[in-house]
Amino acid sequence: MKALAWMLLAVASTALAQAAEEAQIDVSGKLTAPPCTARFPSTQQVDLGKVNLNQLADGSTVATDVPLVFDCQAGAQVELSLSAGMARALTVSPVLLTNLPSLGLQVQLRDKTDKPGIGLGQTGTWPVEDEPLALTLRVKPVSLGELPEAGSYKATLLMQMTYR
After folding, report:
1. What is the pLDDT of residues 60-82, one digit of tens each?
2. Element (H, E) at 9
3. Cα→Cα distances 100→69, 92, 143, Å
4. CA–CA distance from 158 to each of 20, 63, 78 (Å)?
5. Does residue 55 belong to any structural domain of this protein?
6. What is the enclosing helix (H) or strand (E) of 81?
7. Confidence of residue 164 (pLDDT cuts 50, 70, 90)
8. Residue 3, in any domain of the structure
9. What pTM was estimated for this model as a whole?
10. Is 141 a residue whose pLDDT tops 60?
11. Which residues span the domain enclosing 118?
C-alpha cells in the first residue's frame, strides 16, 4: 500500500513538473462605418398640432410631413419598415392606434417620386445614388368610427432601418 502511494506521488509530481503547452491566438479586424447615417435622432417627438373634431368627423384633417434624410455611400440601399412596435394597430386598414379610443393615425413613408410609399406593416427599399436619400413620413389623424372626446393623445411608431 505504501509502495502504491509512493508511485502515485511520483507520477503526480512528474506530471506537475512538465511544462504546460500554450497557444497564442492573435485576433484582429477592422471597424467600418455603416453605408448610411441618418440625419435625424433615433428617438424623436412629432407634434401633430391641434385637430378640430369637426375636421376629424368629415375626414378633412391635415397630414403632418416629417422629413427623414439619410447620407449614404453611392450604390447603397436603405430598407425601411414601419410597425406599431409595442403599440396596437388595426391590420385590416393599417392604422396606428392611439391611447384615445376611436382615434388612429394613418402613416405613410414616401420619397420625392410619384411612386406609392409604404404604410404600417410594410417594408420598402430605396436605392441611393449620388445625393442624400430624402424621405417623408406623413402622419394623419383619422376617426375610427365614433368620434373620440377632445383631449391629448399619443402613439408610438417603430421604424426599422437596414442598410446594404
Report:
1. 999 999 999 999 998 999 999 99
2. helix 2-17
3. 31, 19, 10
4. 54, 19, 16
5. yes
6. strand 77-83
7. confident
8. no
9. 0.76
10. yes
11. 51-147+154-163
Q: What pLDDT is attached to residue 145?
A: 87
Residue 84 lies in a domain: yes
Pairing mode, strands 123-127 and 36-38? unpaired
Provide the pLDDT for residue 90: 64
Mean per-residue pLDDT for 103-107? 94
Which CATH number do you get for residue 135?
2.60.40.1090
| Cα–Cα dist 82/107, whole Å | 8
99, with CB counted inside 10 A (0-12, 13-18, 19+), is middle
Q: Could you tell me if residue 155 is left (phi over 0), alpha (psi between -120 and 50 degrees) or otherwise beta?
A: beta
Residue 65: phi and psi, rounded to 5, are: -100, 130
Residue 118 region, left (φ>0) first, then alpha (ψ -120 to 50), else beta? beta
